[in-house]
Amino acid sequence: RFSCIRNNVWLACCGVVSAGLAVLSSFGLLLFCGVPFVITVLSAPFLILGVGVDDMFIMIASWEQSSRRKEKSNVKSRLAETYAEAALSVTITTLTDVLAFFIGTWTVFPSVRSFCLYTGTAFVFCYIYTITFFGAIIVLNHKREQGNRHWLTCMPVQVDKGQAEESCSYNACCISNCSWPESEHPMSIFFRKYYGPFFTNRWIKLLVVLLYGAYLGGSIYGCTQVREGIDLRNLASDDSYVIPCYDDYYKYFSLYGPRVMVVITESVDYWNETVRLGIENCTQNLE
Question: Which InterPro entries does this entry report, sorted A to Z (predicted)?
């Protein structure tokens, strides 16, 4: 917002901090419990940040909607209405994400199992911080607005007394009544006036059902074609020497099967000819 009072920069920053706290809490808990930490887990914070910011937007939007419906109500009733509107959506998204990643812990790959365990636990903490920490931040930000304080310095902002001689930058940053009036967001108007009526048309609904049926059928067919495993060539860049190396290996040596190695774990007298002959005989028997 352009208003020096209604600007919510710090509120957005706290939403990102909430996701960061969820990552720190989950990683700290699992490391304390001795869960192995693998390099693939380092990508988990980006997933948590995406979901955390999405939950933040849902909470802020519900809070703003409650302000339009109950302008003179107290903070408790507004926060209760905010949770009533946002908590269901946040809970459903969290449950689906946690379920998806905890199912991934059943895999036989230890690295994937650790990644899914760390990420799923982080989603749980992200949900907890969203409905506790971020809800409190919304209330504190509301009290700052009620106190007519600046969004950056939190210092009291003077009321406009017709100081037309001041510069535009001064009016925009230091006077509370210079802001534009609050109105409905253009995106909300688009979905309410155009997007919603378009998809509630009878023929459009029939088309959507047909498209979803085709998508569902294609998804089921794709699931039946998935095979567990990985092609090592996909782990290298397109111009890497590893790709032609694996191509030649599969072309010329794949018929011979995997290489078998014999490892002697005990200390033996290799200087003794009898011992060397015994090792040779053992290798020939394995062949």
Answer: Patched_domain-protein, PTHD_SSD, SSD
